[in-house]
C-alpha cells in the first residue's frame, strides 16, 4: 500500500531503520529537522534523537515494558521517569517522575481507574452500571457528578456551585447547553445550537449564522474566517474577515507540518512553527522561527506510550544549539489529558480544570512568580492553536465550545452517521486522537506461515488487540505500532457508539478459543465482536478481504496509513505481496 512522498508543501520519508527526516519548503525559506531512532535486538524502540542534540532513552524489562525514561541535552542528563510498574495486562500502576513525585493508580476488576495519587494530589473515580464515570473527586477542585442518557451521552455535570445540562437531537447533535448557578438557581448562560434539516451541519449558535463551504467545513467561527485547501484541510485564518493571521501546510500523511503567523494589519511574517511527529504520528515537538527564519525556541514532549511525561522548552543560539532550557513534568488524568505541571522542586506551575468538553482556560502562573508556563497539549491527540482558537486534532480541528469538529469526517457523510461529533457525546470515557474513531488495521503480508497472508489488529481507545497462534496480545497502540514498523499497515476507522465500542472491547478481552488459520485466524475475533454489535462482515478469511468488506459496507469513517519505518528481516513467501 504505497504512500505518496509529496503533497503540496513538502516530503516526509522513513528511509532506514535508524532515521526519519522531515523536510519542509515554504516561500520564506527551508526548514530542516531530523529525528533518529534506536532499537534493541527485539526491535523495541529504545532511543529517539530529537533535533539539536536532545536525546530520549527508554529502558525496558524482559517483557519489553518501559521501566525508565531518561533525557540528555548534549552532555547533561535527567531522569524523566523511573520505577515504572504495570498490572498484569498492561496499564501503568505506578512510577516516579524525575522530580521525585510519585504516581500511584488503583484499578477495579474491569481495569477501570478508581483512584490516582500524584504526589499530594488525589483523584477518585466512580462509575455507573454502564461503566460511565458518575463522579470524579479531586483534592484540588472538589467533586463533580455526571449523568447520561440511554445512549451513553453526557447530559449533566455538576460541581458544588455550577450545573451544566446538555441536550441532543436524534442523530447526536448537541442542541443546547444550559449553565446554572447553584447559589442563585439562575441560568447564567444558555447556548442553543441549530442544524440544517438535511444534514448534521451546524448552522447557527444562539441565532448567529455559521457559514459553511460546499464540503460542510465551517468558514467562520468566533470572528475568524477560515479557508480550506483542495484536500479539505484548514489552510488560512483571517481576523476581522480581512487580515490574514496564519496559514498552514500539511504533508502526505495528513499531518500539519508548518504554520506561518502574520502581524495583523501589516501582513508581515511574524514567525513560523514547524511540527515534529514520531513514526506512529504522535506529535512530539514544535520549533519556532522568527520572521527572518532564525530558529529561536522549541517545545518538545516526551511520552510513555500514550502518556505525556514531560515538556522541554528550549531556547536556541544563532548557531541552532540549545542555549538554555526548562524541563517540566506533566501529570495527566484517566484519559492522559495533562492537568498539572510541576518543576524540578515539585512546585506546581500550571493546571487545567475544564468541563467535560474542555471548556476552561489553563492557569499558567500557579506559583505567582509572574512567569507563565505554556502547555499546548489538550485532549489526547490535540494541541491548542492560538490563531484558530481551535484544537488541532490531526485530521480535523476540535471546537471545545460546541463539543464538535469544525469539519466533517474526511470520508464524508455515511448514511445517518454524525460525522462532526466528538466521541459520541461522552468525552469523559472516550478519546479520539486522530479525529477518527475505533481503528481496524490490515497489515502487509510478510514472511512465511500465517503472516504471509497479512495480519489484522484492532485499536480501541489507545489499546491494540492482536490475535495469533500464541493467543491474544494486548498492548498500548503506540507500542504495537513500533513492533510492527517492519511492514506497511492501513487502518480504517469504524463508526461505533460508545456502548458498541465498550462491548467490542469486552468481547476482544474474553476467551477466543484456539487459533486456527482457516477457522479462527487473526481476523476472526474482531469480526465476531463486530457482528455482536450489528456490523456483520460475513466472516472474511483474508485480512485484505476484511478491509475491503468494511469499506464496501459504508461503515468506515476514515483511513490512516502506517508506512514501514524499517525493513523486514528474513525471506518472505512468493505470495506475500
From TrEMBL:
UniProt keyword Translocase, yes or no: no
Keyword Signal: no
Pfam families reported for this sequence: TEN_YD-shell
Occurrences of domain Teneurin-like YD-shell (ranges): 110-294
Record keywords, A-Z: Repeat
InterPro entries in alphabetical order: Rhs_assc_core (IPR022385), T6SS_VgrG/RHS (IPR050708), TEN-like_YD-shell (IPR056823)
Protein name: YD repeat-containing protein
Species in which this protein is naturally found: Pseudomonas amygdali pv. dendropanacis
